[in-house]
Amino acid sequence: MSTLVVSLPQESATGATEWAYALTADGRTPADHGKCAAALLPLPRGAGAEIVAVAPVQALAWHRVDLPKGVGPGSPRLRAALEGLLEERLLDEPEALHLALQPGARGGEPAWIAVCDRAWLRTALQALEGAGRTVTRIVPEFAPEGEPLLAVIGDAQQPLAVAVSPDAVVALPLSQATLPLLPQLPDEAPRLAEPAVAAVAEQLLSVRPELQQAPQRWLNAARTRWDLGQFEFANSSRARAAKKLAAGWNGFLRAPAWRPARWGIATLVVLNLIGLNAWAWKERASLDAKRETVRRTLTDTFPQVKLVIDAPRQMEREVATLRQLTGTASPRDLDALLAALAEALPAGRTPGTLEYSGTELRAGGLGLSGDELREVATRLKPLGYVATTSGNNLVLAVEDVR
């Protein structure tokens, strides 16, 4: 699974914006990175490929709140509740801001809220989507969780110190004057710095920092559970995912690289249709031949039959008529039904009532159990009869073998 991680620009995105990115095949090591226009960003390949947007630390503000009980992720009152909790802390109108709740937050417990400019985020996502790079997840560059660390990022002219701990994310310009404003971190907490600001960081922090490239930092951010795509951006995320699927399908239908696959699928479909039609024609011809054989047997055996509608039933009626004329016994005759019943009933069982309808025999008062009924039916089957129950009666009839 490959992942494209794109760092969102701090300013409002335009057509001339260049996007910093990192491409990874394993989610941990950058396979490629750089900066280019949105339309030139590499596309991740393979099953589960995704595009992750990283919101820079300068674009986010963090607020710790106590969620009301009964309010949590997915709650219809969540947005209104968050606006009420942050009303006194926000510098802008809530309608102009996007709010995102900490993953795993539960009602009645403290939780972090990430806040950013709504228009800025919407413009950046739309710019990427317009270039065919649909974002599936939005993560913060730094979040107030995990082990404490201090990172120095940016360039040598304007280095930025970011102190991260479960209690806060503090970003300040790195200078001798701002050092006392940074929260105190444990001595063992990592000190990281980008190569461009490593010398400045070592001079001001009086410690040699560990070098970390920005692409590696973005990949680390992409592995967190955070997703700022909530509320309106959650809905648009699903819509963007649908558009991504549609764009992929359109590419499959039109891209020259997929032409052999398209021809192969088309050929396979045509061959299957030809094969199915040939098989259906063969089965239809076989069925018609069997029907013609049955009709011919009827008309050859009984020449007086001129119109064949239901050959098996007509043949059955003609055989019954012939049997009556010649005096030959029929399996439907009363004596034949009685003989079969006497042979199938358990010893000592005799019916209390008998009713013959001309085609079937009803025997009542037998008092047979379920096992005995099944045994009677089993004995009658080789004789060409079927036994069923109707109320307290055992119904005996010739088995229809058509």
Structural account:
It is a single chain. By secondary structure, this protein is α+β, with helices and mostly antiparallel strands. The protein has four domains: 1-142 and 224-255, Nucleotidyltransferase, domain 5, CATH 3.30.420.380; 146-212; 257-327, no CATH class; 334-398, Hypothetical Protein, Haloacid Dehalogenase-like Hydrolase, Chain: A, domain 2, CATH 3.30.1240.20. Helices cover 36% and strands 23% of the residues. The chain is built from nine helices and 17 strands. The strands form four sheets. It has a five-stranded mixed sheet with strand order 3-2-1-4-8, with helices on one face. It has a five-stranded mixed sheet with strand order 11-10-9-12-13, covered by helices on one side. A four-stranded antiparallel sheet has the order 14-15-17-16, with helices on one face. Strand 12, helix 3 (198-205) and strand 13 form a beta-alpha-beta unit. Helix 8 (334-344) packs across helix 9. The longest helix has 43 residues, at 259-301. It is elongated. InterPro entries: ATPase_NBD, GspL_cyto_dom, T2SS_protein-GspL. It comes from Ramlibacter agri. It holds the Pfam family T2SSL. Residues 36-141 form the GspL cytoplasmic actin-ATPase-like domain.
